[in-house]
């Protein structure tokens, strides 16, 4: 810390930068053209210093994006070294291995210049509903999954890269939406440049690194202190995902040594020719995120917090897939990772962990034609399952973990889509029993009101292996997908004709601690409200807990 | 409205009930502060009115209007003390209320709690019916499907019912039929339908708002009834009016139908006061800064009109965090919470930086220095240690403060763990809370495309003037006004509010497809309702004004910008002008417009209002120079002076018009203290407002 920068001043500066990031993220969300960004919040913005260390993020940020952004920046700089960048340049890529694990997530980064050179980077990641191609859970390689934008300058000296925009316009089903979102981010970057410049000028700094070094060091110390409180040793957990014909195994072993923590995924299934492979960036992001939540949630997240954490996985597994593996639905693996991390730590941190949630996140794509304008549409609808039980309270119903995306109001969805939502309700008795009960899943039905066929794509998990209970708690109810009342596969593409009704039942969260220890008042209340019945069938479905280590 | 009789403004706060009495003829103003009587708030009000009238020597028969604002609605929601309530909604959707928006408001906290739904599952009922997004009937209403629900509601003694059906904002017929049906079975119950409470798209927020309205209605009815009775009993001839959250007032019958419109009643009065003072002093861009015991709020006022919104969150359940409360759609002055109040608790965050709030010691146990059992340091404790407040002068000396307790708390929770001395630790609390507020105010302004450096700040609330100038400095604001009686500003503001009511009507439609006659028909129906309301409130047709605004966006976007639309534009069907107005508003907010793309209107807002009540600020009645008003000197800490320095202390009540002083200085009045840092100068205007500006350099 520079001599003139005392604790009080540093704390103030820090808060200013956090506020700045929220402000520009808000600009992006409010001017965005896609419901995925503005209603579901599937985006993140962050500031990195000249060394590429992320130190501030917007409050509304999807966890995976934050974890991958510094890694994407490093890959971008490998191709375009800092000395090759000029003011007004913006770098872009959606390469799954360099970015956030699938082509739909586009990362862009703009260098921040002062007279003496680059002082940092502002970056954002956003989810675009369509990136061309024919994405499917059954894709055999990543080329089927859409258009890959290599690391490139999407803006050069403040001018849009014409070729790239033309490519997007030709290859996407809804180019106006995606391009509108790109421009909304450019505007947010402009705002960032202006605000950072003003902050540095007012506070009399030349670079960001003068401020960030101390922030990162303090964040690191805070994380190390939390790790040090845990007993050294190795702790492991594993689970089975639904997979396809065969379940897939996800195994984590955590080694705690002093103030360092290492997570290794050896023993996890080999990668497969289905779109559920996770790349290392994505695996790292969700592993680090879970550790941050359970060890040091109060410290604002940044690269410093993550220094004591290392994550390894054997190449060629579903958690470290190699090119050209299909990765479109990589969250069907990645969203499981926090649960093996928490499961492994549950013995030594029983008062901090949560049971499995109804994740990986559920969503559905509907593709069709707008009756009035005859334009093609692609709509995505998110629907959450139950949250896992926590040591102090029941899991909330219909709340996502580890991802965090909001729903679209039914009235807003119906206003833009020729479909009717015919129900959206809690599924009684779907939360895993326990001293603390898992959150309930939801049942939601959509009916086509369109004379044109609507093509529906789903890729759901936890229909065979439900969210597990933890420390004696019972599993939640598995999920289910139905078309006109008949169960359909959870990973499928189907065509809906007018009047067809599809129903999704998201999984309930797992319970925590043995159900016999639940307070009688809580049992009575569940019964009265129809949230849970009196008799609880023991262990539903397969894939019960296997605690190793 | 051309009534020359006296007007009384009454604001019930958590601790105090503030009153103001105004005589239009002479422009004289009297103020009074009495303790709030929580068990029966009308008691405190009536006591206060008695006191005020006797002090002013005014006969009750000379009072023409009593304008009242209250925290009753907000408190009933925070404490969940409303009626026993049930919900009726479209079949298949009774759990929407519990499912909410499915978003964690904190990304890292595994233990977060979501706000419990206002109605539990066993009292959420469904009715067979369905409307489409254009309002057409997809499934006809079956009142028979409510049979069981009605029986249960009757057996359980339900006092209030909220009815919210999907897409009812496009077609209220089903909701109206359900209401009429329910009323036959539950004639005593308060019933609210969403298409009347707030006809806006978004089922979760609309359901919540409708329920909150019904939930507080019985309580509110009783309260207003008691109050009106008491007023009549005292021989006050005037009518009662209630302050709405958007800065308008309404007669009790209308307010009783929509009590949720009073959720921000008190704070709206404060903004109204700032708007008036701004107008009278010729300030057309005002930042109203209101800092009380638990929260600090900010609101922009432009051309004497507070900026408004229809989004509001009440009753946060998890560490006061944004997102952990009940979301409401209600017309409110856009007064955002920018942070902590005097009671907010300080400590260290996990990085070792000083953190203030969002936890608050409120008034019980209160700051450590109150000596009421609080032992954690608060902003007020820091203000005391820094010398901004004096232990023996708080509330005019009525409430002695315990300096040692404040010092102990600050050292224990901030100083020692951070390795800071007492003054530095206290300073870090002051500086942090100030920075947080400046930050939040700046974000708020920028969201609306405004630059605060062009604004004048008007500081109100007990703690406002202590922090005002430090915040102003950070925001680049070059003039701060502390009005006389800043501590009772809300009650004062009530006196100046026009009678008005706003309607909100969602109608999502591309501009290219907009049928102007349909829009006009919908608006004129609302206008008819509004004019009827105003007539009941005693506003003549000639005095009634109608204002129309539109919220629109580029097709495909999800957030709207609002702009004014003269009805003539709609009557002439000039869509190009509508587009131009939208683009101007969009550019003002985001600094650019989109090159292509259709525009989509989302919501129409129609406000009917009476004239602004005539009001003159009372002229100062004291005369005295700064020398004469100086009551002593004390040690006060400033960053600029690198430690404590001795500064003069002035008695505001003895500072006459024209007197001037230089910072550093302290100006004390009964309910608040103005801290004038080095580099600022102060003058007193003829209305006894304190006006602070930076001294020219050199």
What do these coordinates show?
The complex is a heterodimer of chains A (549) and B (698). Chain A has 549 residues and is an alpha+beta fold. Chain A has 2 domains: 7-219, no CATH class; 354-549, no CATH class. Chain A contains 12 helices and 21 strands. Chain A has helices at residues 7-31, 35-38, 63-79, 162-171, 175-203, 209-228, 280-295, 303-306, 331-334, 337-345, 410-416, 520-528; strands at 43-49, 54-57, 90-93, 105-114, 117-127, 152-156, 159-160, 233-241, 248-257, 260-264, 309-312, 362-369, 376-383, 419-426, 442-448, 454-459, 480-483, 486-487, 491-496, 501-505, 546-548. In chain A, the strands form 4 sheets. In chain A, strands 2-1-5-4-3-6-7 form a 7-stranded antiparallel sheet, sandwiched between helices. In chain A, strands 11-10-9-8-21 form a 5-stranded mixed sheet. In chain A, a hairpin with a 2-residue loop joins β6 and β7. In chain A, α1 (7-31) packs antiparallel against α5, α3 (63-79) packs across α7 and α7 runs parallel beside α10 (337-345). The longest helix of chain A has 29 residues, at 175-203. The radius of gyration of chain A is 23 Å and the shape is globular. The two termini of chain A are 42 Å apart. Mean pLDDT of chain A is 92; it is low at 535-549. Helices cover 31% and strands 29% of the residues of chain B. Chain B starts with 5 loop residues before the first strand and ends with a strand. In chain B, the strands form 7 sheets. In chain B, strands 12, 13, 14, 17, 20, 21, 28, 31 and 32 form a 9-stranded mixed sheet that branches. Chain B has a 6-stranded mixed sheet with strand order 3-2-1-4-10-11, with helices on both faces. In chain B, strands 7-6-5-8-9 form a 5-stranded mixed sheet. Chain B folds into 5 domains: 6-77 and 222-262, ATPase, nucleotide binding domain (Nucleotidyltransferase, domain 5); 80-218; 284-478, Nucleotidyltransferase, domain 5 (2-Layer Sandwich); 509-544 and 551-600, no CATH class; 626-694, no CATH class. By secondary structure, chain B is α+β, with helices and mostly antiparallel strands. The chains are: A alpha+beta (549), B alpha+beta (698). At the A-B interface, α1, α5, α6, α7 and α11 of A face α3 and α12 of B.
